[in-house]
Design goal:
heterodimer; A: 165 residues; Cytochrome Bc1 Complex, Chain D, domain 2; two-stranded antiparallel sheet; B: 712 residues
């Protein structure tokens, strides 16, 4: 009798434990390297020891930048010398946060789409709205924001501090 | 137990029953609680709370259901429940990084998640409803989610033709092709070219046994001042095509001995005219003149030289041919002369064009190469090697096939090897349990396996026959991506129909043009109807773009139109007849269907129109920010000093209307010109003429480094 009670109790305890724990180990989701979780990366222009991970849109922006914009908006280009020093006024470096962080995405989108003269700036900046799609221009802006020095702080949005857990 | 007590319900029994009933009740209550606490249900509730914290709650929760959401695409084997937790995947307002995962929306890509599912690209276990099971490798599921860094591999499983959006994949495929991996492995979407490594049938006439020994031991020619062996002289640059085989001293001796006696085609030495030798050999200018010709002919477009400046050694020049810093101590001088005169005579399928040489140039350039591009210490660390013995030659012959040399190199008397290494056409879809990790201490997944195997083949398999390559991390990642994209034949016919094959139709013209085209190997750098290299302008529409007379002059004496170019059209010393043949063919055949050079008559342009055009150029549109005229202007576009002598007016008009319609990836912005503005700008450009002047070339090869990204 006593034995039956003990066995019954043990079986019950096991059943409870199994129900509660699910009878198996939970595997922890491994923490991934931020570079492995990124689509592409760009060396920090000001500090060659640092690499900035890029998401999909930013990586597409990097691609468009290195095809169309790098010639005037960087000091070194895939061909070597830059056209930047040829131009007056000197174009902003793409990572120049001091200049670009203050401008809204909409403003930068307009200046790339319509060109400098349409926005009251230098006509040396040609319009790219008929060459690049709006999405391509948005992606370049996303890339600009990613590599900005000092870093770009997006304007506060409601719910941005929300956490899923 | 006494008999009278049998069957009697004691208090004690009642107590046991009561307790166990309570326990069962509790257990029954736990199940619904556990169900309520399921991971995916927590994410669902969390999403609702999150949506309520956003201004567009209504839109975010319009399609919300508390149940499991599933994308079922039977044709593609897709049963994906990922959207059960990834609830914001199609919500454009949730794209920002500040949105917590798993609610962030998918970046805008050309494929809709409802039509494609998730695991087609991201892998992982679609039907799973727990985070770990969906993303990680489990005992029952060995295809974990692909790290985002290699996600372009998934594009490549269907898109075998390269896409502009997937540079890493394209680079990986390029490296796999450049390094001749196809020599030993079957690879998806990469064809075996006519020649991989050089044909070694007559290698004994070209280099010494000592040089072969050194090359086989460590196939890099440059050692820095500390004695460290760097990759082709420059630590972070390209891998040399020849990898390092782990050969023992005896193997090195046997192979170098065997190769040393390969003289299938005896060297036909060319004797430079004694008059030329006599007049130049004592001239103190001989070497500097040779160097000048070397630079003027733009050998550096295909070959690089190591240049040390400020303590840093860098390779400067192109990557099509071998690096030449110490080639003077490598090759037999008689071989060099006969090679320069007729490269195909020694090596069929070589990409080296046949230059037109005068004896004087040939003498000056070969003297420069053998004295200046040389290092008397190059072979000082090689042991003294006597003429090879028969035993060494026999062992070398055996090793040549045993080590896989015959996979890439042809040699007389040895039939080419195929499939020396494993078939990799389905490597990218392999499960971890199908891979042999050996003793390697690396995570048990496909990505780690590929990277370990590429980085150090012996670390995974001590008996590996695969040679050692030196990778930089971006190339290693790119090649990993390309290999991950090779998943064999798609499992379903619906997926098979999605494959976009790589198309490259070889352009082999006929007639007198063909002979000149093959001799100068124009296709090494230029594209013709989609076939050829991408180092130089695509010539598919050259006949519509350039005036015939300009083509003739340019071919006879090429000069660059783009001030920043480092790699320029080589001075091929082309005669007038060859230049005319090429120019005739280009202007008659390589036409754009929408541009008719005869359709626009330059005579219609008046000086008034040209004056207006000049004003538009300089003031309204400020074209000088990118183009140079008369020595001032930008470096981005071609210089327009001679636009009137170079371009056809019909091309200029069509170009100004829509540059991308003529050259799809041109960076020239498409403006909204009126027809009148286009005519005025064309009229102005047609007035610009400049005679062809000798170019300043001496300093150019030294003045720029190879392509580097901004900010590096």
């Amino acid at each position: 009798m006593r034995i039956l009670t003990v066995i019954g109790g043990a079986a019950l305890a096991t059943a409870i434990l199994c129900t509660v724990s699910g009878c198996r180990k939970h595997t922890e989701v491994a923490k991934t390297d931020p570079l492995l979780a990124s689509y592409d990366a760009e060396p920090d222009w000001g500090d060659s020891t640092k690499t900035i991970p890029l998401g999909y849109q930013q990586a597409q922006g990097k691609r468009v930048f290195y095809q169309y914009c790098v010639w005037c908006h960087a000091d070194a280009t895939p061909a070597g010398p830059s056209n930047r020093s040829n131009l007056t006024p000197v174009p902003a470096l793409l990572n120049d946060g001091a200049t670009l962080n203050a401008e809204s995405d909409e403003y930068v989108q307009n200046i790339v789409t319509l060109g400098g003269s349409a926005m009251g700036k230098s006509a040396m900046m040609p319009p790219y709205g008929r060459t690049l799609s709006a999405e391509e221009i948005r992606s370049v802006i996303a890339f600009t924001r990613a590599i900005a020095q000092p870093p770009y702080q997006p304007p506060g949005r409601p719910g941005s501090q929300y956490s899923a857990k | 137990m006494p008999a009278e007590e049998m069957g009697k319900v004691t208090d004690r029994m009642r107590f046991v029953f009561a307790v166990s009933s309570l326990i069962f009740l509790a257990v029954l209550a736990i199940s619904p609680f556990k169900d309520y606490r399921r991971e995916w249900k927590q994410y669902k509730r969390s999403y609702v709370r999150f949506a309520q914290s956003r201004p567009d709650t209504k839109r975010l929760t319009a399609d919300y259901s508390p149940n499991i959401d599933q994308i079922w695409l039977p044709g593609m084997n897709v049963v994906d429940r990922c959207t059960t937790c990834h609830l914001g995947i199609t919500q454009a307002s949730l794209v920002d990084k500040s949105v917590p995962q798993p609610f962030r929306s998918h970046p805008l890509i050309p494929h809709n998640v409802r039509d494609w599912g998730c695991t087609v690209c991201h892998r992982g276990q679609g039907p799973a409803t727990e985070v770990a099971e969906a993303h990680e490798s489990t005992l029952a599921w060995e295809q974990p989610a692909l790290p985002t860094h290699f996600i372009e591999a998934s594009c490549g499983s269907c898109h075998q033709a390269d896409l502009p959006q997937t540079p890493q994949l394209a680079r990986g495929r390029q490296v796999l092709a450049d390094l001749n991996c196809i020599g030993c492995h079957k690879l998806q979407g990469i064809e075996r070219p006519a020649m991989l490594g050089p044909d070694l049938s007559s290698i004994g006439t070209k280099v010494s046994r000592e040089w072969i020994y050194k090359w086989l031991k460590e196939p890099r020619t440059i050692v820095d001042k500390d004695g460290n062996v760097t990759v082709n002289g420059y630590e972070t640059e390209e891998e040399p095509r020849m990898p390092r085989f782990r050969l023992s001293e005896d193997e090195l001796k046997a192979l170098s001995g065997y190769l040393n006696v390969q003289k299938a085609k005896p060297l036909a030495a060319y004797k430079i005219s004694p008059v030329v030798v006599a007049s130049w050999s004592k001239n103190p200018e001989l070497i500097s003149q040779g160097e000048l010709r070397f630079r003027q002919m733009f050998c550096s477009t295909c070959h690089s030289l190591a240049v040390t400046r400020a303590g840093e050694t860098k390779l400067i020049g192109g990557e099509i041919g071998p690096e030449l810093t110490k080639v003077g101590s490598k090759v037999n001088p008689d071989w060099l002369i006969s090679w320069l005169r007729d490269p195909e005579g020694y090596l069929p399928h070589t990409r080296m064009p046949k230059y037109g040489w005068s004896d004087e140039d040939l003498y000056k350039v070969t003297q420069y190469i053998t004295t200046k591009l040389a290092d008397s210490d190059l072979l000082s660390d090689v042991p003294k090697l006597d003429p090879p013995t028969d035993a060494e030659i026999q062992t070398g012959h055996r090793l040549f096939t045993e080590k896989g040399c015959a996979s890439c190199h042809a040699i007389e008397g040895i039939s080419p090897q195929k499939d020396f290494g494993p078939d990799l056409t389905a490597l990218g879809g392999k499960n971890a349990s199908e891979l042999d990790f050996g003793a390697a201490k690396i995570p048990r997944n496909l990505v780690s396996y590929i990277q370990a195997k590429l980085g150090d083949p012996v670390s995974v398999n001590p008996a590996a026959r695969m040679p050692q390559y030196s990778w930089n991390q971006p190339d290693l990642d790119a090649v990993t991506t390309a290999l991950l994209s090779m998943r064999g034949a798609p499992p379903t016919s619906a997926l098979q129909n999605l494959v976009v094959p790589r198309k490259e139709v070889a352009f082999h013209p006929t007639g007198s043009f063909a002979e000149v085209y093959e001799r100068y190997k124009c296709y090494t750098c230029h594209k013709f109807n989609g076939y050829g290299g991408n180092l130089a302008p695509d010539l598919t529409y050259e006949g519509s773009r350039a005036q015939r007379q300009w083509l003739v002059e340019f071919l006879k004496s090429p000069q660059t139109l783009r001030p920043t170019l480092i790699l320029r059209m080589p001075q091929l010393n082309m005669g007038g007849k060859d230049a005319a043949t090429l120019a005739d063919y280009l202007s008659m055949v390589m036409q754009h269907p929408a541009v008719n050079p005869a359709g626009t008559d330059a005579k219609q342009f008046t000086p008034t129109m040209a004056a207006l055009g000049k004003q538009l150029y300089q003031v309204k549109y400020q074209c000088q920010s990118c183009h140079t005229i008369g020595g001032s202007g930008g470096y981005v576009g071609p210089n327009l000093n001679n636009a009137g002598g170079w371009l056809t007016p019909a091309w200029i008009e069509a170009w100004l209307k829509n540059p991308q319609a003529l050259v799809p990836d041109s960076i020239e912005p498409r403006r909204n010109f009126t027809d009148e503005e286009i005519r005025a700008l064309t009229a102005y450009l047609m007035t610009l003429r400049a005679g062809i002047k000798p170019q300043k070339t001496a300093a150019v090869a030294n003045s720029h480094t190879r392509g580097q990204g901004a900010g590096q």
